[in-house]
Amino acid sequence: MLFATAELRPLVSAGGLGEAAAGLAAALAEQGIDVITAIPGYSPYPLDDEEHVWLDVPDWAAPASARIGRHPDAGVLAVIDVPGIVRPDPYVDEQGEGWVDNDARFAAFSAAVAALGRSVQADLVHLNDWHTALTPAFLGGEVPTVLTIHNLAHQGWASAAWVHRLPSHREAYAWGDAINGLAGAIRLVDRVVAVSPNYAREITTDAAGLGLQGLLAERGGDLRGILNGIDTRAWDPATDEHAPHFDRSDLSGKQLARRALLDQAGWDDTDEPLIVMVTRLVDQKGVDLAFEAARFLPGMRARLLVLGSGEPGLGNWGHWLGQTQPDRVWFYNGYDAPLSHLLFAGGDLLLMPSRFEPCGLAQMQAMAYGTIPLVTPVGGLVDTVVDGDLHRDGTGFVAATLDESGVVDVVHRGLRAWRHAGRRKAMQRRGMEPDWSWKQPAGEFIDLYREITG
Ligand code: GLC
After folding, report:
1. Using only C-alpha atoms, what is the Rg of the chain?
2. Which of 42, 80, 188, 400 could form a disulfide with 136 if both were Cys (CB 3.0 to 4.6 A apart)?
3. Which atom of ligand 1 is closest in space to residue 284's alpha carbon?
4. What's the pLDDT tens digit per position in 393-423?
5. What pTM did the predictor assign?
6. Within this chain, do residues 143 and 174 fall inside the same structural domain, yes or no?
7. Which of 7, 8, 17 gets mutated to test ligand 1 (max ligand atoms within 8 A of its CB)?
8. What is the residue with the minimal CA distance to atom 10 of ligand 1?
9. Which domain range does residue 296 map to?
10. Are residues 224 and 286 in the same domain?
């Protein structure tokens, strides 16, 4: 099976796609699937026992080749080289602007993936997001295909000039006077998978379908929701390499992690609850809603710790909050893996006020680490967090409305529960109980693969 993705942790990861792709590919391999993961060669990732193959692609995508070999953390990889693919960041330049040739770069990657699928005689090609959306046009229906939608907000628009470069199925991609990569893939693949059941429903509606709701609804039962897992090789509080260890039966290590986190922020030991956020600084994540609500922190007697990178405006706002409320807000602009683990391990509550959230991984990582999630009522957040005021088996809190007052209210409700030690411990334990790993989702993918390959 060939699994194609533009991101794969730990080699390259701009967000949830890299995390989810790594977790699924590893779990599939563990369950006996022969997986080759194809990624763009943004830089010369070292492989063991590598073999070099030339790929047969149209002139505009040539020369294309793949280095196939084993990577110690990521399994069997095909690192694909096409014109323009080598860059310091997969998507954006130093100013945070998308590379102007992203359409050409990922179109060439998509063509190379199809050529590779043919050359290794893959029995199935599993695509992820818009970066791989043109692949079905190059496969021309020869090989069964699955598309996972991690985020419908990025559709892979390109100018109409691209239509003529597609060898087949041009009409599937045509969209007004442009082409829309995801639209074509949604029409052409054998199965479409959204990263949570609730997101699979949402994207068939006018409110969340971003123009593709009609096409998605037409796929009927071929559109499925399979909830992401978390990669428990990296995210397990009992074995975490970046934080003191603990588990459901003994949370004392979580106290040590909390102290380490307070040290990191330069704060004295305090019993005021620590609300943490580990997030991309983008509109989707509702970071502005959290920053607006930060003015209530003194009254709430709570503290906020944020680790994030992304839009410069949100970064400046975070710095400003940290400077004006130094004993309430700690802000770290950037991505730092060890620090992110310490935030999940040592935090008391996780705030995730997303405007939309296909699945969301942070809320599951938080629950696995006994950190109570406070979320908005969207996408996979609804599938994973059970509201502790509405249900006896609560694991967190779900805002009633998607706005600032909803966020403030959900934080209040979370703080109240957290301050009640009995209630807090029961919620923590319930959140830590489920198997959040990729084991079950990988099984669901394997069943889906069997449906289409026989
Ligand atoms: C994207 C989505 C996020 C999802 C992740 C992995 O980053 O925004 O909700 O969890 O992909 O599928």
Report:
1. 22
2. 188
3. 8
4. 999 999 999 999 999 999 999 999 999 999 9
5. 0.95
6. yes
7. 17
8. 360
9. 252-432
10. no
